Amino acid sequence: MPPGQTAVAGAVCGSGYGQRSEGRVNSRNEATDWVVGAGKWRNPDQDLPHDFEVHRDAHYAALCKPLDPTAFIDQLREEMRDELAALDTGVPKLAWLEIADRGKNGAIKLTDLDAAPEPRNLRRLKNEVRTRWGTVPLIDMLKEAVLRTGCLAGVTGTAGCGDLAPEVLAERLLLAIYAYGTNTGIRAIAGNAVLGHSEDDIRFVRRRYLTAGVARTIATETANATFAARAQTVWGAGSSAAASDSTHFGAFDQNIFTEWPSRYGGRGVLIYWHVERKSMAIHSQLISCTASEVAAMVECAMRHGTTMEVEGNYVDSHGQSEVGFGITRLLGFDLLPRIKRINKVRLYRPAAGESDAYPRLAPALSRPIRWDIIAEQYDQMIKYATAIRAGTASTEAEHQLSGSRVGHLAGTGLPGARRRRGPLVRLPAFTPQRPRPLFVPAA
C-alpha cells in the first residue's frame, strides 16, 4: 500500500464510524459510543416506548402500578414487615430451618427432608392402566390429540395454499412432527411408514408447512384444549405456576446459535422449557448456551400464548438474578428460584431504628432498605417493564443492556436500587406459610 493511503483509509473508516454511532458519557465520565443498528451496543433509549410520557397513566394502569412511588413503596414495606414477622414467628416450629451466627458458613442452614412415601394407590393405578390399554404407541397419542383439538386445521404453506388434500397433509405433518419429536428422524419414519409417504414428501411438507410459527400455534392449541378438558374433580383447580429449565441439544457448527460451553462439554444449543404443575408444556424456545435464562423465563411468562395465567415461575439458580427479581415484580408475577448459596442470603430490614425487631432473624439481617433510591428510579424502572410488556424491546436485550442502561439513565442511583430491590422482592420465598419447595437447599 502506498505511503499515506493507510492514513486516508483510517480517516474514512473513522468518519464512517462516527456517522454510525452516538456518543454518550457514563456515570464515571468515560466516553462511550452507542452503535446504530447493533444489538448489545445500541442506544438503550431506542427500546423505550416513545409514547410513554403522553400515555403515562395508561402504561401504569396496564402494569397495575400506582403513579405515586410512595404508594408502591408503602405496599412493599408493609409486605416486607409481614413476611419478616411471619418468618420470625415460625422459625421455632420449623425443624428443617435454623438461623444462627456461624461466621463464614452463613446464617441460614437447611436440613434435607425425608423422602415422602409413595401413595398406596399409585402402583395399582399404573397396573390398571397397563391392563386396560396396554402400551399405547406415541403416534396414536399424537393422532388422537390432533383429532380432538383440530390444531392442524389452520396450517397453511409459507408460499400460500397448496394443492395437497387435507387428509394427506395431516398425515405427513403427523409423521414429520413424530420424527422430530422422538428424534427418530424423517428417513427412519418414511422407511417404516405403511401409508405410502416417501421421505421426499415428508421433507417437503416439513419445509413448506411446519414452520416455527405453525409449531408454536399447534403447541398452544394443544395446551389450551388440555386445560379446557381437565376435570377439576380429578386434577384439581387450574395451576397458576410454571417451572422453567433448559435442555442441551447437540448441534452442528453451521448453526449460528451453536456454542461449546464448558458446562455441557460439547457443542450445541439450549431449548428452554416452561411446564405448568400438571406437566403440561406451555412454551419452549431456542436459546444459545450463554443466553440469559432470566430473560427466557420472563419471555415465557409474558408471551406463552396459552389461556394459563402465570402468577409464579420456579427456576434454578441460573434462572434468577437481582434484575430478574425486580422486573418480574413490576410485570406482576413472582420469581421463585432455587437459590444455590442460600446460606449466604442476607435479609434487609424494612426501616432504620428497628434493630430490636425480629430477634430470631438477627444473624441473617443486614442494613435497612434505601427506599429513597427506589423512589428516585421508580418511573425509569416502569419504563423498562413497559418496554418488555409492549414488545418494543426483547427481554434478552433488556437484560443484556441493564448494566449500560444504569450509567446512561440514572448515574449511580439505579445500581443501588437494583441491588436493594433484590433482597426485598426475594423475601416472600422465605415465609413459613408458603410451600416447602420454595425453600429447598441447593446441592
Task: Write structural notes for this entry.
- This protein has 443 residues and is an alpha/beta fold.
- Among the domains are: 56-107 and 309-439, no CATH class; 137-219, no CATH class.
- 44% of the residues lie in helices and 13% in strands.
- The protein contains 16 helices and eleven strands.
- The strands form four sheets. It has a five-stranded mixed sheet.
- A hairpin with a 4-residue loop joins strand 6 and strand 7.
- The relative contact order is 0.13.
- Residues 5-31, 403-424 and 427-443 have low confidence and may be disordered.
Architecture blueprint of SSEs:
Blueprint: H1 5-19, E1 21-25, E2 31-35, H2 56-62, H3 69-90, E3 97-99, E4 108-110, H4 122-133, H5 138-149, H6 166-181, H7 186-192, H8 199-208, H9 212-229, H10 232-235, E5 241-250, E6 268-276, E7 281-287, H11 293-303, E8 312-315, H12 322-331, E9 334-337, E10 347-349, E11 365-368, H13 371-390, H14 395-400, H15 402-410, H16 413-426
Parallel strand pairs: 5-8, 8-9, 10-11
Antiparallel strand pairs: 1-2, 3-4, 5-6, 6-7
Helix pairs in contact: 6-7, 6-8, 12-16, 13-16
Radius of gyration: 27 Å
Task: Give a quick account of the main beta sheet: strands, pairing sense, barrel closure.
Answer: 5 strands, mixed
Report the uncertain regions: 5-31, 403-424, 427-443
Give the helix/strand class: alpha/beta
Mean pLDDT: 78
Q: Total number of helical segments?
A: 16
The shape, in one word, is: globular
- What pattern of helices and strands is seen along the backbone? HEEHHEEHHHHHHHEEEHEHEEEHHHH
Per DSSP E runs of 2 or more residues, the count of β-strands stands at 11
Determine the fraction of residues in helical runs and give it as a percent range.
40-55%
Across the major sheet, the strand order is 7-6-5-8-9
- Beta-strand residue percentage: 5-15%
Task: Please report the distance between the alpha carbons of the first and last residues.
Answer: 61 Å
